[in-house]
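Supplementary material to the annual report.
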Amino acid sequence: MTSLPLSPAIVTDMVGSLFIIIFSFLSLRYAWLLTRKQPENFLWGFLFYFCMTLAAFAISRAIGHLLKHILLFSDKQELWQTISPISGGTNTLLMISLAAVTIYYHKGIEGYQAINKKARSLKEAYDQLEVAADQLQGMNLHLEEMVVERTSELSASEKKFRNLFNNSKDMVYFSDSTNQLLTINGAGFEMLGYPVQGAPALNLFDIFKNETDLDSYYETLLSQGFVEDLEVEFARADGTGIHVLLSATAVYDDKGLFIGCEGIVKDLTRIKTMMKQLAASEKMASVGQMAAGVAHEINTPLGVILGYSQLMMDDFAPESEQGQNLAIIERQTKACRKIVADLLKFSRQSENAREDIAINEILLDVIAVTQHSLNMDHINVRQDFAQELPLIVGDTERLRQVFVNLVNNAHHAMEKQGSGDLTMITRYDPDTHTVVATVQDTGHGIPDKIKARIFDPFFTTKSVGKGTGLGLSVSYGIIQDHGGQIEVESPVINRQSGEKMPGAAFHVKIPVMLVEAASVHE
Amino acid sequence: MNSIRKVNALALFLPLALLLAPDQAWALQSHGATESIYVHQLAHLFYSAALGYLFWDVGRNAFPGKGWRYLQIFCVLMILWNLVAFSGHWLGFHIADSDIIHPSGYFSSQITGPLSAIKLIYFSATLDHLLSVPALFFLFLSLRSLYRSSDEAEKK
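Predicted assembly:
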């Protein structure tokens, strides 16, 4: 080949120029559509400017090339020589612009990425805010329900502890660091004898009867932080004392400073009474044993004295001085034997009969025997017998003797005042399964200082010759022998009104067999 | 005072006098025909470098989608086109007017023999549209793909 035809190059150049224009404008169209769709997207903006510059370059170059071919075809080389620098210069300028647009693209992309980063950060913050807002809204929606629920739980809890505080049978109190009582429950006021409403402000100084007890309580509380089972005496509103068992715990604030205490106080009156009764019972038992021993020892010589005195009475005429002396010896010896017999009854050494007894019948018998003498001293006898009382098992004669003794004592207590009421009451106590028979008078009553001694043998307040001091002792022994108790109450407290009444009441409590009690209830 | 005013008036007049006598434009540098081809060649290099940068940056950012891959192909083809065009312009200096003849008009133009490497390369360079047209085609594919991708993303 000696030469190369340039016609393929001319054809390629012309056709290629047309394609260049077509593709550049198609590209520009899509770039424009992208910017229309997402105007805020920098990349589309860049591509649009890039395509626009490229389209301008394509037009410039393609038109230049086409014009060149057309002019050269038409043999107008001079004209082309004139236009050529303009076309070439424009092409150069647009190519440089294209390069510049591309080169500066990175600055734009950096800015765009920074903006995007910021936008993402803002979006994340917005999303978080949205989530937080949703949560807040959710919390708001449930807040009221939660408040109601919590309030209800708190109320139930408060009610529970309030009930425990109010319904406690023991005194519950809260005090401050100066021992001033801040809160006391109803049982506490009742124990101290103050009205629940309108009670004065109290301090532990007011209710501790002994100052040394208070000092001991306070020192222990401060040193150990608690006081456990401290037995002290409280002063009631009326000035009387009450034995209590106190436990308390110190209360501290957040800084560990002592700010007061909370305590529980238990009334020991009942326990004290029981202990006294137990002590008395033990004492009576020992006295009974001694009395039984003494009675046995004295009974024999008394029998001998009585026998010999009766033998000697046969030897003397009753009107003679010796006969009368012997009669006195015989009478006094018999009196001594009666005393001995009473001592044996007290000490339960005598034999007992066991039979079913209706207590109301015994009391009616006693009233029948004693009513006449009672009426003589203007003492009214009242009966308040429960119907259908269960039967008790025991010795009728000995129980009758108990009630005769009690009625006689009541008579004695009222005879000086010239009138009075003697009330005999019977009832059934289902809690203890006992029949309770009460002999109550309106006499002078029994002083506290002798209450503990009235059941002692030979203790009497009667004048010499009017009593041996064995009546209540014997009665005590008989009731004990029946498995029961005899209690004294003076002054008498009215069971309905709670008022104190003058006089004394003896409550005889005798147990009932459970089978019998059940039959009565049926 | 008057002498100062006279000096000032003279100082103003002299530059105006120069403008009125532009026989020799002292402040302007003359640019010959060679300079334009140099500028044009530098523009090709500058454009190639810009396309190279665009290719690298698109790859670096790892933009997702076929559209960006097409754009990279466009960059490669256009760089090649630039090199071909650059070579064509450069070889144009080594082709004498007598090397191209027009026996029966412009369309019958030929490169006369004997054919050297320069002449063959020059001939190849005249077919530069074989690179630039595919390059523009890939640019078109790139933008169409990006548009469709954004359309699909919006629909999702």
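Chain A touches chain B through 53 residues (CB under 8 Å).
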